[in-house]
Design goal:
The protein is an alpha+beta fold. 62% of the residues lie in helices and 17% in strands. It has a six-stranded antiparallel beta sheet with strand order 2-3-4-5-7-8. The chain has a two-stranded parallel sheet with strand order 1-6. Helix 5 packs antiparallel against helix 12. The protein is elongated.
Amino acid sequence: MNDSSFTADKRTRRLPRILATRSTGLAFLSLWGFLLLTAVAATPEVVDSPPPQDVGTGDQELSLTIPDCISRALLKNLDISIQRIAPQIASAQTLSAFGAFDPTLQLQTQYGAAEYQIDSTSLSAYNTQTSSYQLSLSQLTALGTQLSLSMSSSSSQDNLGYIFAEYTSLASFNVTQPLLKGFGTDITEAQIRIARRGQVAADAGFQAQVEQIISNVVSAYYELIYAQDNLTSQEKSLSLAQELLDDNKIRVRVGTMTALDISQTTSEVASRRDDVLQARQVVIEQENALKRLISDDFADMIGQNIVPLDRPGEDLTGKPPLADMAVALQNRADYRQAIAQAEQSKLQLVFSQNQTLPQLNLIASYGYSGLGTNLGNSFNRVTSTDYPQWYVGLSVQVPFGNRQAIGQRDAAQLQKTETLLQLKKLEQDILVQVNNAANRVQTDQERVDVSRTATEYAKDALLAEQEKLSAGSTTTYTVLQMQRDLAQAETNELRAVADLHESEVELFRVEGIILKVYHVVLDSSPSSER
């Protein structure tokens, strides 16, 4: 008998034993499967939550680019609308300051009567009737000179010596020139110059407000994109956990996994549904924040879902720190505003110092008079210039103590010191802001690169772990952990990209070039000197 015949005979003799062993194994496996299915049936069944609903607050989609949002904000943002009034108020105040040099026309008329005793022993009396008329035109000059041209006439009549009234008329040119207090253009034009600086400050304040709102709008735009993308990432993570739960249910039914894996996966699915709900709420809040910035009627936009059309890139050319600080000092609107306010305080101090001086005025007048029995005759004699009259003199007024003027001067001195210190502080703040913003751009660029690498490795790790789970060489807990790591890595990458673009916008703002970057031309520009 050869070896092959022996082997075949041996296998034939062992066949009944093998069949018996396999029958016993199949019976054992059947019993074990029945027990597992019983255990699974006893485990509370997972009730899937309804699928996530649409994130938006309404049914209408509103697709917007960043320029679209900026344009809407310039037209409808309430903070800009409020700040826009300040330059108009400053312009009105400037116009009011010029009013000090407006000529003044004055007309005055008066009539009166009186009775007098002739003497202390008589009951007889006499009465008088008087009337007067005055017309004057006056104006203040830049040197503080008060000029006036006046024409006046008065009449008197009594019951003793005159039957007809006498009219005395006068035409004169009068000059009052301050020599100390109130002298010179620095004093007479002080309020005009202060108002002009106020208009420059108001215009600069308006521009600074617009720059801040534009920065807020663009940042809110990127925050909305981040929130929407993060919601998508959380929904994908939920989907992965749900798929794993469905697969584990099948594995439990075929006996390759325990009920403990079902419990772990079910718990994770519930946790990720909570993450989705929270992410959805963040989307709603960020969308509302952007709506508030670009609209003056939030109720009108409640039914609209904003769809951002400008997707952020992942690469920016970072600017080195300390490179653009000089540009920032030149371009920053709030710095120009602070300079204008410092100039205002300087002008106010000069004016307040002058007000502490005594009032010393040179006064002079020259004119002609006339006397007649009626108004026409008296004025005819005035115009004949036969009766000239003139005078010149000094007027002095010195207040004792002068506490009001001295207190205002001291307050103006302190105000000037305060504004100069605020200006210096703002310079330091601008330099720090530019340095921080430039470094933040570089840091966020590196964060984008690092987080993108972490996301790729998290994806690879999850795929490898899923293959190991299919081969039975790892656990559900490990796969769930890998899914969480991937979701967190994607969130970190989205956060880094959003932070990168927001830090870039902040750099534009602190450098004072954000209007130029986004091609915004304001309808209210800083006022020029007249």
